[in-house]
Specification:
The chain has helices at about 5-10, 15-20; strands at about 60-65, 70-80, 85-95, 100-115, 115-120, 120-130, 135-145, 150-160. The chain is mostly beta strands.
Length: about 170
């Protein structure tokens, strides 16, 4: 190709000009195409009909580091204690962080202690005391795990052999 052919050749529109041309308006009947790899085709078939599963929101209580709270916590799924708590806690799962302190009564399914707990403790399933953890008081549990360095002081009662219904001997 010589210079004359290049100069007389009809110019092609710039890519911007093509993009600036009016586009058809979207319709509610058009499928929404997710952002994806352009080399992968997007399905145009009817979307799958899925059963909607309603999930109850998880009830979580967190007491942050350097926070002091006194009172009662009940009916929660998870409680995480990073600060200091005085009172009673009734939750499914309780985690006491390394700097966390609880003074009071605890009733839960699972208790994991890296900090300090003092009071009456009832863990219906597992009680896990980390090497930095300390539990002092009346302690009832089903399964107990104490990592080397963890401290347990007080009375221990294994709940494994206890009947579920107190009316049954």
């Amino acid at each position: 190709m010589n210079l004359k052919d290049v100069l007389t050749k009809r110019p092609q529109p710039a890519p911007e000009a093509v993009l600036n041309q009016p586009q058809p308006s979207p319709s509610l009947n058009n499928h929404i195409k997710p952002y994806a790899d352009p080399s992968r085709p997007v399905s145009t078939s009817e979307p799958e009909k899925r059963a909607f599963v309603t999930r109850q929101a998880e009830r979580v209580v967190t007491i942050g580091e350097n926070v002091i709270l006194k009172g009662d916590i009940s009916d929660c799924d998870k409680a995480e204690i990073q600060g200091k708590f005085e009172g009673t806690i009734n939750a499914n799962s309780i985690y006491v962080a390394e700097n966390g302190i609880i003074k009071g009564d605890i009733e839960c399914d699972e208790l994991s202690v890296s900090g300090s707990v003092e009071g009456k403790v009832t863990s219906r399933k597992t009680l896990d005391i980390a090497s930095s953890g300390k539990v002092v008081g009346e302690i009832a549990y089903e399964k107990l795990l104490v990592t080397s360095g963890g401290i347990v002081l007080g009375t221990l009662e294994n709940q494994t052999d206890k009947p579920q219904n107190p009316d049954i001997g």
